[in-house]
Specification:
It is a single chain. By secondary structure, the protein is mainly alpha-helical. The protein has one domain: Farnesyl Diphosphate Synthase (Orthogonal Bundle). The chain has 16 helices and no strands.
C-alpha cells in the first residue's frame, strides 16, 4: 500500500498560531507526572517498579512534544489550567499508544475488550464514585485525573466529559474490529465516528478551561452552535488522519483513516484520495469560518443575547480558533508527525512552527 509522491494542496488554517507564555514550565512537570503514573521509564530506561511497564522511553516522550501541543492549543490558559489540560493530553496519547501496541498491532481483540471494560469503571460520571485499584499506567493516569478535572467552575462538565471518554475508548475497540475484519467505514458514517475516536467531544471543555468562557445556555442547543461544534470537531480528527496516515495505515494496518475511507467509498486510488481528504478538511474549516463570522453574530441578535453573553460567546469562539490553529501547528511541525510525512513520500513535509 505504498503511496507515490503527489503534489498536495495544503491544509488551510486562517488563524495565526499563538503560544502560551507558560510553555517553558511544562516539560519537567509533565515528565514527573508521567513517570509517577508509570507511563514513562526511569532514568536508565527501566520501569520504576514491578507492575509498571512504561509506555514510552524519555526520548519517545520528548519527541511527542506534548508540551507544545498544550501550549499551542490553549494560548490563554492560566498555569494551573494549562498543567491540568497537559496531563489530560498526555493521558489521551498514553491510551492511544498503549492500545495500538497492546491490541491493534497484536490483534488481541479479547484483551482489548477486557482492558476497555475496566476503563469504564474509571469513567463514572457520578461525583464521588468509588474507583477500582489501578492496574496499569493508563488506569493510574485517569484515576488521578478524575480527582482534578472538575473543579467547581467546571463541575457541569463531569457527566458530558466522562461520557465522551467512554465513547473514545469504545471507539478504539470498534476500530480494532474494523481492522480485523477488513471493514472500511463508509464516508457518510465516518465523520461522526471520528469525533468519538479522536475524543473531540472533550475539546469544548478544554476551550472553556482555557478561556474561562462558556457558550451561553440559551443558544447552546441551537442548530447554529451544533453546526459550529461539528465543524470544529471534524477539523480536529480528520486533519489528524492526514497527518498520521503513514503510521496508522502502513505500520498499524488501520482501515480507520479518512484517506482509506474516501478511497474505498468513492472507488478511487489511494494517491487520489489524499488530496481529496485535504480538500474535505479544508471544506470543514470553511464551514467553521462561515458559521463563526456570519451565523454566530446573527444567532446572538436573534436570541437577544445580552452584552455579557455575547462577549462570553465571542471569547469561547476565539478560544476554539486558537485551539484549531495550535493543533494545525502540531500536526505540521511536531516530530510525532513530521518524520513520517517526510519519509513517507506523501509530499507533506513542512517546517516546524516556532517554539519558545
Amino acid at each position: 500500500m505504498t503511496m507515490p509522491a503527489v503534489e498536495l494542496p495544503e491544509l488551510w488554517m486562517p488563524h495565526p498560531l499563538r503560544i502560551n507564555p507558560h510553555l517553558p514550565d511544562l516539560r519537567a512537570e509533565s515528565e514527573t507526572w508521567a513517570r509517577e503514573m508509570g507511563m514513562l521509564s526511569g532514568e536508565e530506561g527501566r520501569p520504576d517498579g514491578p507492575d509498571r511497564r512504561p509506555i514510552w522511553t524519555r526520548a519517545q516522550f520528548r519527541a511527542m512534544t506534548v508540551d507544545q501541543l498544550t501550549a499551542w492549543t490553549l494560548p490563554d490558559a492560566a498555569p494551573d489550567d494549562l498543567r491540568l489540560n497537559h496531563r489530560f493530553n498526555i493521558w489521551a496519547l498514553a491510551w492511544d499508544d498503549y492500545f495500538a501496541s497492546a491490541f491493534k498491532r497484536t490483534g488481541d481483540f479479547q484483551g482489548a475488550l477486557e482492558f476497555t471494560a475496566r476503563l469504564h469503571a474509571f469513567l463514572r460520571p457520578e461525583q464521588g464514585a468509588r474507583l477500582p485499584e489501578p492496574a496499569n499506567a493508563v488506569e493510574r493516569g485517569i484515576a488521578d485525573l478524575q480527582q482534578h478535572l472538575f473543579p467547581p467552575r467546571l463541575a457541569h462538565w463531569r457527566q458530558e466529559f466522562n461520557r465522551a471518554l467512554v465513547r473514545y475508548v469504545d471507539a478504539g475497540v470498534q476500530e480494532l474490529a474494523n481492522s480485523r475484519a477488513g471493514r472500511v467505514p463508509h464516508l457518510i458514517d465516518y465523520a461522526p465516528f471520528r469525533r468519538e475516536s479522536f475524543a473531540a467531544h472533550t475539546a469544548p471543555y478544554s476551550v472553556e478551561l482555557s478561556t474561562g468562557a462558556r457558550i451561553p445556555e440559551r443558544v447552546r442547543h441551537s442548530r447554529t452552535v451544533h453546526g459550529l461544534l461539528a465543524a470544529f470537531m471534524d477539523v480536529m480528527g480528520l486533519a489528524n488522519d492526514i497527518a498520521s496516515y503513514e503510521r496508522e495505515v502502513h505500520e498499524e494496518r488501520d482501515v480507520n483513516n479518512l484517506v482509506v475511507v474516501i478511497a474505498t467509498s468513492m472507488g478511487i486510488p489511494l494517491h487520489e484520495a489524499v488530496p481529496a481528504a485535504v480538500h474535505l478538511v479544508n471544506s470543514r474549516m470553511r464551514d467553521f469560518e462561515e458559521l463563526r463570522s456570519s451565523e454566530i453574530p446573527l444567532l446572538a441578535r436573534q436570541f437577544g443575547l445580552r452584552h455579557d453573553e455575547r462577549a462570553e460567546l465571542e471569547t469561547w469562539v476565539d478560544g476554539a480558533c486558537g485551539f484549531l490553529s495550535g493543533l494545525h501547528a502540531w500536526y505540521t511541525g511536531a516530530p510525532r508527525y513530521a518524520e513520517e510525512r517526510c519519509e513517507g513520500g506523501a509530499g507533506m513535509c513542512a517546517p516546524a512552527p516556532p517554539s519558545l
